[in-house]
């Protein structure tokens, strides 16, 4: 169940990646397709401004049997009106002709700037020159091609029995998923029935990608999907779920570490909650607090900001401050009264690249862990100049 940086690719999958020329000379097109039909589970953004890519992919999940996904990066194709849907449909039709499949066998994803139509002349010229029959299998290239403001490609590999799983993701900003993740895709040659795969994937997304936040903003383009073509045969379902969970969590941490302007991974664990929803709500309040995030960035031992973040969960009236415990990397800061030497120790702990905050609410037996990052001046700089 170990994770690897390099290992054999899942059987039956091929990849395409290249530069359409949407923004610069870096790759901005990626496609992964299977030679065989797949069991697929997919989850999408719940943002009310979700783009044509989301709407079309939802439709294809209902009507087809997807065995391919295409990603256009550096252009979200969101808030582009009826033209945006027409262009998304044309993209899938042109690519389907190349892949010798039906258009509704393709999921489409887009990521990048909002409010600008696809440069369709460039897309047509690029897709028409594709040669899928000579495609290789390079998931590293796909991980690079789906990047926008990411600084590193994000991919993981693992094995379960005779089967291989590969996972890729992108995302560093506009990240507080409500149903899925920024863009995250898994491909495996394991054989699992679609209902089983769907149940497993939804549980995993809920406990990993839905526990990730960079800046509290839910993207208009979030998509998470898994494709299983079964060419390696059946695998133990419980073992598959354990390994896939580890892979998803590894991608979550890669995304959090690479958050726009981030210098530290922030992990918040809440125990002793009334239920899981309360645990996650309190943990998100902490990890999303700009004051907590900036304190972590500057290694400022102002632990009171964590207490503040817990306290602003005003609807959780069962939380009593007298029962709450707060600790940073094992150092309890509340309800103890810290002296000068304790505060220096706390500051030293916060200088690390991975800062862990643990809270016990004293309300029950439920718990949740969420991940995020610190907030630096560079986040402001990146997003102040994003479209220019």
Q: Tell me the number of strands.
A: 15
- Looking at CATH, the homologous superfamily of the largest domain is L-amino peptidase D-ALA esterase/amidase
Describe the largest sheet: 6 strands, mixed
CATH topology of the largest domain: L-amino peptidase D-ALA esterase/amidase
CATH architectural designation of the largest domain: 4-Layer Sandwich
Compute the number of helices. 11
Q: Which CATH class of the largest domain is shown? A: Alpha Beta
Mean pLDDT: 90
Order of helices and strands: EEEEHEHEHHEEEHEHEHHHEEHEEH
Number of domains: 2
The order of strands across the largest sheet is: 1-7-8-9-10-4
Radius of gyration: 22 Å
Strand content: 25-35%
Rough outline: globular
Q: Roughly what percent helix?
A: 25-40%
Low-confidence runs: none
Separation, N- and C-terminal Cα atoms: 44 Å
Q: What oligomeric state is this?
A: single chain
Structural class: alpha+beta
């Amino acid at each position: 169940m170990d994770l690897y940086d390099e290992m054999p690719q899942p059987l039956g999958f091929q990849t395409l990646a290249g530069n359409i020329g949407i923004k610069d000379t870096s790759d901005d097109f990626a496609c992964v397709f299977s030679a065989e039909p797949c069991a697929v589970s997919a989850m999408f953004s719940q943002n009310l401004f979700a783009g044509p890519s989301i709407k079309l992919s939802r439709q294809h999940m209902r009507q087809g049997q997807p065995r391919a996904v295409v990603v256009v990066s550096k252009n979200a194709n969101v808030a582009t009106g009826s033209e945006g849907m027409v262009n998304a449909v044309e993209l899938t039709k042109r690519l389907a002709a190349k892949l010798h499949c039906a258009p509704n066998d393709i999921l489409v994803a887009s990521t990048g700037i909002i409010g600008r139509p696809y440069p369709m002349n460039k897309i047509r010229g690029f897709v028409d020159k594709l040669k899928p029959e000579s495609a290789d299998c390079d998931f590293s290239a796909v991980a690079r091609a789906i990047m926008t403001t990411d600084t590193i490609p994000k991919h993981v590999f693992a094995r379960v029995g005779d089967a291989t799983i590969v996972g890729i993701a992108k995302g560093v900003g506009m990240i507080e998923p409500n149903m899925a993740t920024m863009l995250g895709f898994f491909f495996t040659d394991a054989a699992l029935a679609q209902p089983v795969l769907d149940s497993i994937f939804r549980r995993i997304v809920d406990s990993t990608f839905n526990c990730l936040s960079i800046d509290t903003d839910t993207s208009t383009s979030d998509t998470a999907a898994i494709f299983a073509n079964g060419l390696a045969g059946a695998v133990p379902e419980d073992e598959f779920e354990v390994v896939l969970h580890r892979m998803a969590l590894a991608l979550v941490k890669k995304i959090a570490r690479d958050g726009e302007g981030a210098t530290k991974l922030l992990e918040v664990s809440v125990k002793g909650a009334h239920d899981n929803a309360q645990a996650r709500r309190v943990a998100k309040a902490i990890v999303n607090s700009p004051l907590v995030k900036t304190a972590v960035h500057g290694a400022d031992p102002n632990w009171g900001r964590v207490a503040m973040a817990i306290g602003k969960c005003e609807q959780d009236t069962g939380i009593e401050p007298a029962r709450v415990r707060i600790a940073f990397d094992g150092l309890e800061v509340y309800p103890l009264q810290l002296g000068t030497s304790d505060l220096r120790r706390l500051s030293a702990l916060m200088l690390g690249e991975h800062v862990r905050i643990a809270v016990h609410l004293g309300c029950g037996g439920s718990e949740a862990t969420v991940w995020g990052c610190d907030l630096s001046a560079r986040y402001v700089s990146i997003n102040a100049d994003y479209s220019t």
